[in-house]
Design goal:
This protein is α/β, with parallel strands linked by helices and about 375 residues long. Helices cover about 20% and strands about 30% of the residues. It has helices at about 50-60, 95-105, 145-150, 175-180, 220-245, 275-285, 365-370, 375-380; strands at about 30, 40-50, 65-75, 80, 90-95, 110, 135-140, 155-160, 165-170, 185-190, 205-210, 255-260, 295, 300-310, 330-335, 340-345, 350-360, 365, 380-385. An eight-stranded mixed beta sheet has the order 1-11-10-8-7-2-3-6, with helices on one face. Strands 13, 14, 15, 16, 17, 18 and 19 form a seven-stranded antiparallel beta sheet that branches. Helix 4 (about 175-180) packs antiparallel against helix 6 (about 275-285).
Length: about 375
């Protein structure tokens, strides 16, 4: 059964409203409606970067009957330093996981030039069109330029995408799946289209739906499962292309929802707008790349660890004699040597902040962090987060 989401056209008016959920616990593989042509074993140009693409490359590599050669394109290695996406160290070299996988399997590797993907020159034999050539992408991070797309037959340029398109078109489908509370998701294989037609707008040639999103899912726990599903799906699609039974189905335009790039500003907690559950979902969705943050006495402060707490689970006496109805009010709870910090969120919901990270300092537990506050704040037992 096709998993259908009745999502609004385009991106939701508020990023924190819970979109309608629909799904099934059963995973179903679906294919569409225009027949492709039989072909010889493929010469594959495979473009990717991270562990999601690694799973697809491994699955295809193991299907030795499907290909005669595989060439791999990866983002260029680069130095990342303090404040970089992947590290707080002074210097660290980023090497795409797909590159390491390709090296392990002794496949030819072609990095994207530092000048950008538009300057990339396809290696032989992909510099000349052929019906046996196929372009595969998965979590590549670059938009394929038209001049490269045109070297491949329309049905031989495919992308593996970790969502049920057209839901969550864009750069961060897994993050938005978790952040908005979807209970079920899936993987799609789509035809790659030129940029002007829209990101992730290609016809669908295969999909697996009914992949459960656990209530405590994080990006790091959900992605590997979707990666495994995607690898198996891609092999199925390639077999259908090879034997002439692959079909393509247009996306349903009324079900589009966008998954834009995750930004630093998106990671800022809006205590008066977001409930504790919404903040918790956002934390699980994006903490690996953009830690959530707030300001404490005008100082930007990262939230290193948090969890949602039901009002009935708040410690006895926490609110005694306090007016904590204002979102952003943080209250220190003391019990012996234990120190816990509870924060009021929208709709009278509550979070417990377990660790914080000040710029240029180590991650601190609540006790050590609170001891660094001004005496007046320490004595009051409360502070406002903004």
């Amino acid at each position: 059964m096709l998993l259908t989401y009745h999502a609004p056209l385009g991106f939701p008016t508020t990023a924190w409203s819970t979109l309608r959920r629909a799904g099934t616990s059963r995973q179903t593989r679906l294919f569409g409606s225009t027949t492709a042509v039989r072909g010889d074993p493929f010469r594959i140009l495979f473009c990717g970067s991270d562990e999601f693409s690694v799973a697809s490359l491994k699955a295809v590599h193991e299907a030795r009957d499907l290909w005669s050669s595989i060439d791999v394109v990866v983002p260029a290695e680069r130095e990342i330093g303090r404040g970089g996406r992947h590290s707080s160290k002074a210097h660290e070299r980023y090497t795409p996981a797909l590159r390491l996988c390709a090296e392990q399997h002794e496949l030819p590797i072609y990095p994207v030039p530092t000048a950008g993907i538009k300057t990339f020159l396809p290696p032989r034999p992909f510099d000349s069109p052929s019906s046996s050539h196929i372009l595969l992408t998965a979590s590549f991070g670059h938009i394929i330029p038209l001049k490269l797309l045109q070297l491949f037959p329309p049905d031989h340029r495919l992308n593996v995408h970790p969502s049920l398109l057209p839901r969550w078109r864009g750069a961060a489908p897994v993050q938005w799946t978790i952040a908005t509370g979807d209970e079920s998701t899936g993987v799609s294989v789509q035809r790659l289209e030129r940029f002007g037609k829209g990101i992730d707008s290609g016809d669908i040639v295969g999909r697996v739906n009914g992949v459960e999103v656990p209530c405590n899912a994080t990006y790091d726990t959900l992605l590997p499962h979707l990666a495994s599903v995607g690898g198996g799906l891609l092999v199925d699609v390639l077999r259908r292309l090879k034997d002439g039974t692959a079909t393509f189905t247009p996306q349903i335009q009324t079900q589009i929802a966008l998954a834009p790039k995750i930004t630093h500003e998106l990671a800022r907690i809006r205590w008066s707008e977001q409930t504790a559950d919404e903040i918790d979902r956002l934390y699980r969705a994006i903490h690996h790349q953009h830690p959530l943050w707030t300001t404490v006495l005008s100082v930007p402060t990262r939230i290193a660890s948090l969890l949602s707490v039901a009002s009935s689970e708040l410690p006895d006496g926490l609110l005694q004699g306090r007016d904590a109805s204002s979102p952003g009010t943080a209250i220190l709870y003391k019990s012996g040597k234990t120190r816990r910090l509870f924060v009021c969120c929208a709709e009278d919901s509550w979070l417990e902040v377990e660790e914080v990270h000040m710029a240029g300092k180590q991650v601190l537990g609540i006790k050590d962090w609170w001891n660094g506050m001004a005496k007046g704040v320490r004595d009051s037992g409360t502070v406002i987060l903004r």
